Amino acid sequence: MERNRSDEKSRRKPSGAAVQRADLTEALYRAFFEEWAERGFGALSLERVAARAGAGKAAIYRRFPSRLAFAEAAISALGVRIALPEAEHPTLEEDIFALLLRARAVLRHPLVRRILPDLHAEAARSHEMRAINDRVAEARRKQAEQVLERAVLRDELPARIDRELALDLLLAPLYWRMVVRGVTPSRDDLALQTQVITAGLKAANRHHASL
């Protein structure tokens, strides 16, 4: 009987410090992004990240074997939130406007605006960071692809549309303005941008149909 009790204890789930608490993981992610935004990835210190999160460095290494693995996990978690499904709107133009509004909300966050240029710089030097950077872009493109799919189903765009070009056209102008130039567009600016993008996509559609 004693052995059975011992076996039962050994099968119990770990508790306390042995459990990777979700709230602590979130705090570590926030601290990681704050440290990255403040100092750049090259000078990022995991000791300072742990201190910002009110944890010990061991809490990081129980979750992530390296700084790069930490970056990948944090950005992947952020990417999932960014890629939440968009509500459908009646027209392509309304869908594009809603997409740009959501993208603006993400890109105007002060941490995002400071981290993204540094992420691009690191990606130019590191294959591993290039892969992480590509995953950030993929999260946005998946959301934009839903807009194209709905437009095809409504016969606003052809099924054979050049999707890579269309996806570039949907988000690249806003990204250039906000991340490269550091300018936050107003709703009126987004409305005008939406009209131009919609017209461009439909013009490409007409050109494609005439070939």
UniProtKB/TrEMBL annotation:
Residue intervals of the HTH tetR-type domain: 22-82
Gene3D superfamilies recorded: Homeodomain-like (1.10.10.60), Tetracycline Repressor, domain 2 (1.10.357.10)
Signal sequence residues: none
Cited SUPFAM superfamilies: Homeodomain-like, Tetracyclin repressor-like, C-terminal domain
GO molecular function annotation: DNA-binding transcription factor activity; transcription cis-regulatory region binding
PROSITE patterns: HTH_TETR_2
UniProt DNA-binding residue ranges: 45-64
InterPro entries: Homeodomain-like_sf, HTH-type_TetR-like_transc_reg, HTH_TetR, Tet_transcr_reg_TetR-rel_C_sf, TetR_C
UniProt entry keywords in alphabetical sequence: DNA-binding, Transcription, Transcription regulation
Pfam families: TetR_C_11, TetR_N
Protein name: TetR family transcriptional regulator
